[in-house]
Amino acid sequence: TERTLVLVKPDGVARGLTGQVLARIEAKGYRLADLRLLHAERAVLEEHYAEHRGKPFFEPLVEFMLSGPVVAAVVEGDRVIEGFRSLAGTTEPTTAAPGTIRGDLGRDWGLKVQQNIVHGSDSPESAEREIGIWFA
Ligand code: ATP
């Protein structure tokens, strides 16, 4: 079995979508292994998004992630990393496929950062690294 880190980002929590996101994860057959509601610290976000340091959207992304509470979850199941990314849809919510979390629940708000409701780890290495950051 495999684990991934899922975040419900501040836009998702503020819009009251946490329950829907968790319900879709559970309905797909994955298991919640750990769950927290928290205000992220800047240092945690800078580590989480280290690969994007230096990009034009890095600082706006960190500011957005600091703008309100987030939900962090460890989700378990066979092939959950690719399974959750498929459930989440592509990065840009306007064009993410209907049926996905981003495609059904998100859109472009004309802001500097894609407010796309959720994050999911993109590889086993990222998953273990990110779980270590958020569930230290
Ligand atoms: P995630 O990692 O959030 O599950 P992803 O792999 O599709 O989704 P990344 O490329 O890792 O996205 O980017 C991380 C986050 O940074 C995105 O989810 C989005 O909020 C923001 N982002 C990425 N690319 C852009 C961009 N070109 N302009 C604005 N914001 C962006």
Automatic annotation (TrEMBL):
Recorded catalytic activity of this chain's protein: a ribonucleoside 5'-diphosphate + ATP = a ribonucleoside 5'-triphosphate + ADP; a 2'-deoxyribonucleoside 5'-diphosphate + ATP = a 2'-deoxyribonucleoside 5'-triphosphate + ADP
Cofactor: Mg(2+)
Domain (Nucleoside diphosphate kinase-like): residue spans on this chain: 1-136
Residue positions of the active site: 119
GO MF: nucleoside diphosphate kinase activity
Keyword annotations of the record: ATP-binding, Cytoplasm, Kinase, Magnesium, Metal-binding, Nucleotide metabolism, Nucleotide-binding, Phosphoprotein, Transferase
EC number: 2.7.4.6
Pfam families cross-referenced by the UniProt entry: NDK
Compartments, record wording: Cytoplasm
InterPro entries, per database record: NDK-like_dom, NDK-like_dom_sf, Nucleoside_diP_kinase, Nucleoside_diP_kinase_AS
Database matches in Gene3D superfamilies: Nucleoside diphosphate kinase-like domain (3.30.70.141)
Sites where the protein binds ATP: 9, 57, 85, 91, 102, 116
The protein's role, per its UniProt record: Major role in the synthesis of nucleoside triphosphates other than ATP. The ATP gamma phosphate is transferred to the NDP beta phosphate via a ping-pong mechanism, using a phosphorylated active-site intermediate.
PANTHER family, sorted: NUCLEOSIDE DIPHOSPHATE KINASE
The family this protein is said to belong to: Belongs to the NDK family.
Subunit structure: Homotetramer.
Protein name (database record): Nucleoside diphosphate kinase
Lineage start: Bacteria, Bacillati, Actinomycetota, Actinomycetes, Micrococcales
